[in-house]
Amino acid sequence: MSAKTTTPTVTPWANKSEFFELKNWFFPGLSDPEAATASKQRAIARTKAYMIRGNVPHAVECTGMLVSAQIEDTPSANAISTRLAMSTAVIRFVNGMIDPHQNGSYVIPMQVIAREIGLPVFLVDLRHTCTHETLPSLRELRAGVDEAVTWLHTNYWSVRGAEANESATPAANSDEIKEIFRQWRRLYRDNRDLKALKDLSNPGSKPEMRFAFLAKQIVLYYSSDPATLFATMVHQKVMHTKNQINKALLLPMLKSLPSELLSDLFLYMFDEAERVDKHQTLSEELSLNANPVAEWLEVFVEQDMLSNGQKTMLTCSRSLGRTALNLLDIYLMHKNDPKIERIRQTMRDVVLSGEARLETAIETQDMVRLANEYKQRVMKENRKRTGGDFVSLGAEEVENDQQGPFKRVRVK
């Protein structure tokens, strides 16, 4: 039996990133009217270029015509020209949505088909008026154009965007994610004064608008496939190159991303750094620079990029690995946090007690219990040997101890 073959779909855009870019230009969601208009004009120009290539979906073409009519509707514009442009856009939109469903031997009323596909009947009536009667008023046409644009956004752009996300494979996503960061690298190279954007929905200059679009693309991939996004950033020479972190290049972009994305990325990098540490020879030198991923963790803490730092540190403190121990030290260098200080000391006591190896995951309450048992045992041994004198920890180390960077101590 022959294998089933599929016919590839020819589209004017080279990849899904271009489709999402066009969608975001048509529907920028910007509070600044001038910036929103500039974004829509770019979308119209791009649509015209796609029409030269051919195979442009009717919904995309109609979106361009309808949005163009909205932009041309200004106080200084000629009223008749505006009404003609809006009427033409409405007629082509309704005809393009209805005609593909006229497949039978008999003509089906437009209103019937409109109800079947969820198209407002008001737009069918408006199309009839524009075609066979006098031109409707500007008020009616504006309402019709706005309704048509809203319908296209809901029933075409949003649906196609969801399908593109669902059908995307991790390999394709990975290539597209890397392309986003390559575009950011070129943008930053030409505009090194770009700072982090606090509000992606309200960029100012053209470079900032491009900056905001790239950041939104990253957020889009985070919403659809965070595992692939993080794996690409950490393992495919995005966050670092030749064991050197791309700090200056990526900080403006990272600081513009949502806090929940940064927290999840931080925890992903923490797990990766812990995994690397388990395969490295543990030394007495506790340095986060053992690998670039661990170095990025230090940057996140130093730059105060975690919206809920204590909660994140508590999550990391469940591990007794070298990265967790050092990470809490760095956090305490920048934050006065008694709770984390107690947990950090407890972790050290547990390691000193020999109750747990450095790579073992352990709950915080178990740490406290083990640390208390360790301290009670030390005090009891001290009373036996010294008659009640306080024990000095760290005065003498056991030779050839293999418990990791924190060597055991012998009670004097």
TrEMBL record:
Gene Ontology biological process terms in this record:
maturation of 5.8S rRNA; maturation of LSU-rRNA
List, alphabetically, the InterPro entries matched.
Answer: Las1 (IPR007174)
State any GO CC term. Answer: nucleus
Q: Which GO terms describe its molecular function?
A: endonuclease activity
The protein depicted here goes by the name YALI0D18700p
